[in-house]
Every structure is written in C-alpha cells, then in structure tokens.
Amino acid sequence: MKLGNVPLIDNGFLMALRAPQVVEAARRYGDPMDLLESFVE
Questions:
Q1: C-alpha span between 17 and 3 (Å, rounded)
Q2: Percent of the chain's residues with pLDDT above 70
Q3: What distance in Å separates the CA atoms of residue 2 and residue 17, rounded to the nearest whole number?
C-alpha cells in the first residue's frame, strides 16, 4: 500500500516502524529490530 510514492505497508509490515525516530525510541527498551520487526504468533 502506498500513499503517493511513499510505501505505508510492505508485505504486511508497517513501514513507519523503520523511521529513525521510532527505532531510537524503541532502543530504550532493548534491541529495536527485535522489538519492532518480530511478530507475535
């Protein structure tokens, strides 16, 4: 899903979770990639 040329969702992943500000905020709670990109099953 795109808004103009900006991808919002890519293969079910919310692309906003890769924004530098979001990654930096998540870093306070542990590994940001693990926190932001792992899915609960």
A1: 16
A2: 93
A3: 15
